[in-house]
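Customer escalation, tier 2.

The customer says the design service returned an amino acid string that "doesn't look like it belongs to this structure." They asked us to rerun it and document both sides in this ticket. The original structure tokens are below, unchanged.
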């Protein structure tokens, strides 16, 4: 029905930057909030940042001031600009989108994840 495809992960040195992208495709009636989560080995998945359809954002305290979430609704895409990366940012980053596929059906979808590794 709806697919989310992430890109932009990789290996970067501490202090470096990466930009993640996530494109939503498929049966999209309305694209509501979109966000990024991450999961480090042995830890629970946690919210990194979320942006609603009006452009309001919420960012985790651990990345505030370093990560910026944005979206381009013309492209059904959400971005995560990550700067001043730290080794503790190492994780698999997942894209999430809340999508209305019809006027009365709404659910969350997840991407497959993209690995971000920050070396010290």
């Amino acid at each position: 029905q709806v697919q989310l495809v992430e890109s932009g992960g990789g290996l970067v040195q501490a202090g470096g930057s990466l930009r993640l992208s996530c494109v939503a495709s498929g049966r999209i009636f309305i694209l509501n909030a979109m966000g990024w989560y991450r999961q480090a080995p042995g830890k629970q998945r946690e919210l990194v940042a979320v942006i609603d359809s009006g452009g309001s954002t919420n960012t985790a305290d651990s990345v505030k001031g370093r990560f910026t979430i944005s979206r381009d609704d013309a492209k059904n895409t959400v971005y995560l600009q990550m700067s001043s990366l730290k080794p503790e940012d190492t994780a698999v980053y997942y894209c999430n989108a809340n999508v209305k596929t019809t006027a009365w059906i709404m659910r969350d979808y997840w991407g497959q994840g993209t690995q971000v590794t920050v070396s010290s």
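Tier 2 assessment: The sequence is consistent with the input. The chain has no helices and eleven strands. The radius of gyration is 14 Å. Sent an explanation to the customer and offered a walkthrough call.
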